[in-house]
Amino acid sequence: MAYPGSSRSVSSAPHAPWRIPDPWSAPDPWPAPEPWFTPDPWFLQPPYAWAGYPVEHPLTFPVVDAWRHVPHAWRQAPAHAGGPERITERPPRAHHIDWHARYPNDIILHGPTDRKAIALTFDDGPDDVWTPQILRILAQYQVKATFFCVGQRVQQSPRVLQQIYREGHVVGNHSWSHPNLTRLSPAEVRAEVERTSDEIQRLLGVRPYLFRPPYGALSDEVIREVVAMGYKIVFWNVDSLDWAGLTGPQVAANVLAHAGPGAIVLMHSAGGTGEGREPTVQSLPYIIVTLRRFGYTFVTVPELTGIPAYQPQAPG
Ligand SMILES: [Zn+2]
Q: 91-305 belongs to which homologous superfamily?
């Protein structure tokens, strides 16, 4: 069967089935698009188009497309030691609630619920491809957010980290190599956290106070170590599931269906090895515009919770 306007036919090549090109293994430069390729912006598709939502994301296309032309070497952020974000590493939500109940002063799930304020948080960056796109959208919509950064990626993309900070966002600690901390010794946990803060402090002159464990995985031992080092553990109460291979509309639906006053929303500003963040980039303008229409403002986690962003500076 041939698609309209296409010289290709799906059934004519049974031994070499056509596949969606994988941007992570594709040769550089990225091959020109097939002549029959027409991008379909998600917000022009049902159910958004059916629902009569206005089209007001002119940014989405140029930005999402631009990354294809970035040289291949720049696209690779260091791999997570514990592998990409995935369901098998993540404790059930009930564990987060339980840990918060047992350590109410050390573990944050959300902010006060009496004000229509929401904190967007972005994990796993910085990188040179996706984080700049997130930053561009946040700047366009004048939203301040909180970035939980991975130390080895800070080391690789220091200028993007400095851009995050310079543009008024808050930088938190998300470990050095993104392992599952519950599988490490106490000394290794301390090294993961402190090495990251050292690198951030070297680049920004401030030392993070907020820590988010990779995969949201904690144990009593890890909590003890992190709290003893003087950090506040920040979870979330709305998971965009942008790490789970969803489309842009699905990511937007997850956030919009669950966000409420005081929400801390989990999103990602960089992928694991071989992962893109197009759904996050595509959904973000829609999430911001929609929640603003419902009267929400966007704040950082420190603004939402009253918790300081950074450790007190050592005198002298
Ligand atoms: Zn992470």
A: Glycoside hydrolase/deacetylase (3.20.20.370)
